[in-house]
Amino acid sequence: MVTFRFYVVSAVVFFLALAVGVVVGSALGVGDATRIEEGLNDMEAKLDETVSLIDEKNDQIKELERYENESAPFAGDATLEETASVIVVEPGLDTGVVEDLNVRLGEAGANTLGYVVLSDRWALGGDTDAEDLAALIEFDGSNDDLGAAIWAEVFGVVPPDGSDGSDEGTQVLSDSSATVDVELLAALESAGFVELVGFGNELAAGETVAVVAVTGHDSALAADGKGSALAVTALAPETQPFVLAEITSTADGAPERGATIELIRENSEAEFSSVDNLDRVAGRVATVLALAESMAGGTGNYGFGPGTASVLPRWPIQ
Questions:
Q1: Selection from 258, 265, 208, 263 nearest residue 233 by Cα
Q2: Ramachandran class of 303: left when φ > 0, alpha when ψ lies in -120 to 50, beta otherwise
Q3: Is the dihedral of CA 144, 147, 148, 150 positive or negative?
Q4: DSSP 8-state symbol, 268
Q5: Secondary structure percentages of the chain, helix, strand, coil, to 5
Q6: Rounded-to-integer distance, Cα 84 and Cα 268, Å
């Protein structure tokens, strides 16, 4: 959009050009000065026309954004009834986007249990980070499997290595729907591994737990594609609603939209749905609809970046 700075710079450039024209015109003579003045007047008229056109486009963008915001609740209306949602957010990302996603999930009928904001301790960079995290679930395996083991306990899911004694070593739910171990989440918060936001509601009988993992280039855990989002995706069997959503970075030199999701896919064997534009209202709507699609057994990759199938799941989503 055109900013106030644009107008100031444009005005300064114009008057500098006018001043130069006057000086040059004085040196060249009246006729030359007249032609230069006419040229500057023509330039000013074109500049005004361009600014007017940009203002018109900005007004259209604002109208579209208003429509997008006000129509969003209707897009996901009642699609997540009998569902309880939990959002897991990597550190360093915009929690304002996550707060709005939580609202959209509630508008779609979900019992919004809250969201979990991870701390930098999940990188296990401190001397005792891995030891402290493992102690919470009495885990004695490799640090590479520690994240998956934690989320297995949180959501009541059998880890991929079958560490519960299962011979299959497959990813299955402990019941017809996953659970949420709020006590373990509280212990993780006390140990400084997470911050819990909005956890006041309780999981009701018969509700299906739907999980959204939020990642992005600005995350402190996303550099190698092996952050916490990967650990959560490893525990996303086809029978559990799950979406990996990306907040695109606005930093200079940041990778293109969807790059973080692609990096996680390269390190994951799980099939999961993804949305690469969570930073936009359209992405939050897509995440709601992708969860509903996941509940019906479908998956898809949505957004605006390379590798996406469409902006939204096909209608009907169920």
A1: 265
A2: left
A3: positive
A4: -
A5: 45, 15, 40
A6: 25
Q: Using CB atoms within 10 A of its CB, is residue 80 exposed (0-12), middle (13-18) or buried (19+)?
A: buried
How many residues are given for the chain?
318
What is the tens place of the pLDDT at every residue in 188-209? 999 999 999 999 888 888 899 9
pLDDT tens column, 155-173? 887 654 444 433 333 333 3
Predicted local confidence at residue 72, as pLDDT: 56
Q: What is the mean pLDDT of residues 238-263?
A: 86
265 vs 64: CA distance, rounded Å: 33
3-state secondary structure of 85: strand
Token look-up 């989440």 returns 185
Q: Bridge partners of 157?
A: 173
46: tokens are: 């074109």
Q: Give the H/E segment covering residue 242.
A: strand 242-246
Radius of gyration of the chain (CA): 26
**Burial (Cβ within 10 Å: 0-12, 13-18, ≥19) of residue 167:** exposed
- The candidate with the shortest Cα–Cα distance to 93, out of 118, 129, 121, 123, is 118
- Give just the sign of the alpha carbon dihedral 10, 15, 16, 20: positive
Nearest to residue 76, comparing CAs of 270, 287, 236? 287
CA dist., res. 78 & res. 292, Å (int): 10
Q: What are phi and psi of 249, to 5 degrees?
A: -75, 145
Type and span of the H or E element at 95: helix 95-107
Instruction: Find tokens 């497959």 and name the residue.
Output: 170
Q: Supply the DSSP symbol for 122.
A: G
pTM: 0.77
Residue 234 CB contacts under 8 Å (≥ 6 apart), including other chains: 148, 151, 160, 171, 268, 269, 270
Tokens of 191: 């140990």
148 C-beta neighbours (distance < 10 Å), count: 23
